[in-house]
Amino acid sequence: MAPHEVGGKPKPKHSGRGKQDVRSLKRKRDGEDIEKLQQSIEALDPKAEIKEFSDLPLSHITAKGLDASRFTTLTDIQSKSLPFALKGRDILGAAKTGSGKTLAFLVPVLENLYRQKWTELDGLGALIISPTRELAIQIFEVLRKIGRYHTFSAGLVIGGRSLQEEKERLGKMDILVCTPGRMLQHMDQTVDFEVNNLQMLVLDEADRIMDMGFQSSVDAIVEHLPKQRQTMLFSATQTKKVSDLARLSLRDPEYVSVHEAAASATPTSLQQFYVLTPLAEKLDTLFSFIRSNIKAKIIVFLSSGKQVRFVYESFRHLQPGIPLLHLHGRQKQAARLDITSKFSASKNSCIFATDVVARGLDFPAVDWVIQLDCPEDADTYIHRVGRTARYERAGKAVLFLDPSEEEGMLKRLAHKKVPVQRTKPREKKQQSIKNQLQNMCFQDPELKYLGQKAFVSYTRSLHIQKDKEVFKLSEYDLEGYAASMGLPGAPKIKFQKGDDAKNVKNAPRALLSSDDESEAEAETETEKTKGKKGEVRTKYDRMFERRNQDVLSGHYSKLVADHTVGDSHADADEDNDFLSVKRVIPLDDEDIGDASTDLPASGPAAKVIPGIGKEAIVIDSKRREKLLKSKKKLLKLKDKGTKLVFDAEGNPHQMYELEDEEDFQKRGPAEIQRAKFLEEEAIRVQEADLDDRELAKSKKREKREKRKAREAADMAGSDEDVPGLVAANSRGQDDAMELLASLPLADEEEGRATKRPKKWFEDDSDDEKKRSKKKARVLEAPDEPETLEDLEALAAGLLD
């Protein structure tokens, strides 16, 4: 038998066996390499000073990926943590921001799974948890670079993507990078997702993950994981709480810290300043700073997403001369990815962001980090300023502090070994944007509404801060801050009221003395008089008093306080005015013309509305009047009328009439009456059943008789329907033929048909032409066409 030829050359007979031999040799060689690698790791001294990746016992695949990604030299955190991590020890790593913590846990993940010859049939091997989506994406990109020559399958599981697509691919992944919320969702909902064989758990920015916001999710995830695993925690500010370590089931962890012995917790190449700026001048100073640095790359941190939105929209209208971006957690995932990529690729731009980008994100060549709002603690400050001066590059950071925040915040930064020095803005370059913002809020009610929400969110963030030595809410100039945002008044904040405001609000109206109410009314009238005579009213004051200015004006009237915050009665009135009713139902017809839509719905006297039902409706509370605005609620109070039935004598009665109790008891006990009633009803039902059966039988009988009569009539009288027609059995066949001969022919009927009246343009010649056409259509065809020419002639004649 001749050998097979491929490409003109004879193919060897035992090619399949040769391939098997090559595979077996490759597996044997890989096994020997893994054994040598394992021996080298066991002989590795974890405390030895290692400066290059080539000095570590790594697989040739990982070393090739690191070399292709231009990673050659080890950083401090990598040189101290990698030997312990490669030996399988649990790690607690703390290092400055931008020190290369990502490679410190990604390299051990790849090496551990490689040495165990991990495949997708073994299930999930490593789980890496990140607090934010942006950081998870960044970790995944680094993993793709250094692990490009491995055969592992890796997946990214974050919110904002299709859950169904992730479910379909999740069971085939060896390594997963995820956020806590989406990971827990898959553990609860995805059927074929198994983590029983997990080898490694990594928590990046562990202190943020262990915060209250993620604590419950992390605890639930850890409950699904096996106890026998390697766990690594990395962050710029590491936790040492015994409770946190116990929850994560750490086994004799190795604490690796780089910056504890250093003079500063932040990079030495970072210049840090703080500016003492009153709250009312923050936006002016920020705008002046951006105008002076339009060729720089700037990150501005604010405390809430609503503030980010307002500052971005207002500065975008002011056009400082630099591209502006904004990023916060409320944005959709696609928009967040687009914004981060734009800011990373830009050379000069300014991004307003919340703490969602404060941790771990690596934006290249950031020049300035501005903290417009004071961070909640020193750890947050360290993470924020870590977005610049990364990998020993230069960078600058500025912290804006209110005078009430200076002493407490500087003390906490000094405790963390963070050196900051005070600086002052140049007065020549300082400019005010207060009037411009006020004009913009006047012309654009939506921007004004954003400003109101931003003010409320900022005040709430101050109120919920745990460190009350730094954040003293009573010492902030909130009125001046609202004016600097362009708002004509400070929006009302509920938690700013007195301690007795809640008791006054929840107390019944009857307990409120009339003297207190009269005093509150007198104070209100006095304030109104002062406003009319003593104060200068501007066009902005008149503008905000107008009704129906815009769809958002109602929101503003609910937010702005009408009275002073200190008075408890005024606070109670403000609580009542929060649910103001736009339409007030008048007392009677005379008051309709004098009623004003701006009057408060509640008052000391109750309102009575007659004419809706049998009884007058009394409105004794504002809540009741608001309920009466609903047509559905009001319909229940109207007189709906009653349904009557008429007896045999024509007298009307109610549909259901109740009997007096005495008359009912005269007829005997209730059980006897019940049994008697059931017996009578049973007899009545039986009689009605018999009547129904008889009625049904009679209807069937009548229907059957009608059908028989109809059939007999059809048989007997069918000959009389046609005049002159006689049955064939009584007369001969000749009579039938005569009858058929007497019937008119089709041509004769056409001749006897009434002629259509001619139109003005028709004459007799037209009729002759039509008749000639009808005659011309008759063709005389041969009996049987014999040739093709005969068939063509016949077809041509038919077509003509």
TrEMBL record:
GO terms for molecular function: ATP binding; ATP hydrolysis activity; RNA binding; RNA helicase activity. PROSITE patterns: DEAD_ATP_HELICASE, HELICASE_ATP_BIND_1, HELICASE_CTER, Q_MOTIF. Residues 82-256 form the Helicase ATP-binding domain. It is found in: Nucleus, Nucleolus. It holds the Pfam family CTE_SPB4. GO terms for biological process: rRNA processing. Belongs to the DEAD box helicase family. RNA helicase. This is ATP-dependent RNA helicase.
